Amino acid sequence: MSEFEDTPEDIKRKQAIVDDAKNKWVEQTKVAISAKPHALEDYEREKEFMLEISSFNDWAPLGAPQFYDSYLGYISYRDAFFAPFAWQDHTKYEDFKKKYDWLNYYWKEGDLGDGKKKGSNFILISCDDVERYDETMKAKAAKS
After folding, report:
1. Does residue 1 form part of some domain?
2. What is the mean pLDDT of residues 130-136?
């Protein structure tokens, strides 16, 4: 073994760091996903009573601070997962990130329900969504 190869202990340590970061991201994703419908309801209710109201993207930071904070937490934990994942296995990370980016683009351009409205800046993609990417692609191809 060369001096630059990971020992079994190094591999376990890296995996533990990645697993911990992933678990934190998964939990924060659940928090943000559960907060989003309430924020959308509040936004729609306010739209009924106000003549001019900005888009949900502009309204959310002040109109739904709990959701907005959970969304910022989602972004932070996502990035905190991506960094050690790329460090642990760059090839797997690149594949995962490519799928994540495609889902993010697709959900911003499409109207997929569940608060995933076209043009929304608040897209919440979970690890499960990325792991189901191949199924999503097959379903999309079947619709075409």
Report:
1. no
2. 82
Block residue for tokens 């191949």: 134
Instruction: Share the mean pLDDT of the chain.
Output: 86
In a domain, 3, yes or no: no
Q: pLDDT at position 91, please?
A: 95
Q: What is the pLDDT of residue 128?
A: 86
3-state SS of 72-110 is HHHHHHHHHHHHHHHHHCHHHHHHHHHHHHHHHHHHHHC
Q: Is 96 within the bounds of a domain?
A: yes
Average pLDDT of 56-75?
94
Question: pTM score, two decimals?
Answer: 0.81
Apex CA 123: angle with CA 138 and CA 54, to 5°?
135
For the chain, how many structural domains are there in total?
Answer: 1
Count of all residues that appear for the chain in the document: 144
Contacts of 110 (CB under 8 A, 6+ apart): 116, 118
- One-letter amino acid of 28: Q
| Domain carrying residue 50 | 8-143
Give the tokens for residue 119. 């043009």
